[in-house]
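Minutes, methods subgroup
Present: GH (chair), OT, SY

1. OT presented the first of two proteins processed in the latest run. Sequence and structure tokens recorded below as shown on screen.
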Amino acid sequence: DKLHLKGFDLETMLAYSIAPTLPLVALGKPGEHLGAGRIQTTNEHWQEEILRLMQSARLILIIPSHRAGTLWEIATLQNGGFLDKTIFIMPPELHFHGGKFSEDWHKTVLAAGEAGVKFPEHIAAGAFFRLNPDGGFADYSPFVSEEFLKEFEPTGVDLHFVERYDRNTDGMDIADAINSLGVDGVDFGGGADGDR
């Protein structure tokens, strides 16, 4: 399921925010969507592929859910010792599956708790957050999608922009929010002054 914020899907927003520093990679059919590069796999081998990606990744981004496959990924992140390089994404409040995202998030908090992972309750503005190695809440940074959305033309995404964000000191972008959580070996440079 794609999460859309004011017409932009979250995956594409993330891909543009962290490129060219890090590639965004996911499982799926190559070319099926703008955003993350895709690695094709089968239902029988997807867990092996995810584990391989987790082991080699410098940064892991995940939108938690209460679905069995995502809960397996979250348990694998904790049991494999990968939480130190993982940032969880809590999207802001939006309509999702005929309801509000916060309602779906509450189901996720409960399911993750049963697996020994403590997610925070939903924050209407959204957040990026990290967990301690034991699965407890560690830190968060606000989700700053408004700053990112200012980059795009009202008619759609300009796929040919080369310059990074001309940010000012009264706002952060997604890469700044991720940087603020301090994953070792990951730095998108700059900061709110626009130097990248």
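2. SY then presented the second protein from the same run.
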Amino acid sequence: DTLSICQGDAVQLIADVSPTTLVAEWTSDNGSFTGTGNSLTINPQSFTTYFATVSVPGCSRTDTFTVLVDSIPAPTTLMPADTSVCRGALVVLSSQAYLPSQYPDITHEWSPNIGFESGDSLYNMVIRAVDTVTYYRLTINGGCTVLDSATISILETTTIDISPTDPALCTNSDINLTASSPDITEFEWSIASGGG
């Protein structure tokens, strides 16, 4: 039998022996483990095969159990974790880089699919902010899974009204422009490119 686990996880080895009065002797292929009992807890840090041997006078039987140990590159925290931007802005959600050759079977799944500008199976994601959304990236490598999240919030654009609108003036005439907004009380004026 074979089991995939994440590095740091514990596994319970159970030997189903008959008659039940027999007790299994355990060893490992790399010599890192020996034990006695029909139920043992192990915490392997790398690929390991375990051997359970049951003996009676003149006869013995051995069975094997292999544990595949996977890991996730750390840290996987998304940056920026929470950010506020104007609608339509591009945001890059990223994590610390890792060497793909060390994790050849790792996969990434992003959700929800809102504003994606890059593939939903990539480690990092480019998003065009269209609404306030919490994004999730599920990283899977064998027996390991990690779920990271980041929230992109939309800054609502404040409206500014200027009156009069598109006035027609004679050269060198003066006009009084008034700016108003439900949220802004102080305004800074400037001349548009090409203005006078």
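Chair's summary of item 2: The first strand starts at residue 2 and ends at 6.
Next meeting: continue with the remaining queue.
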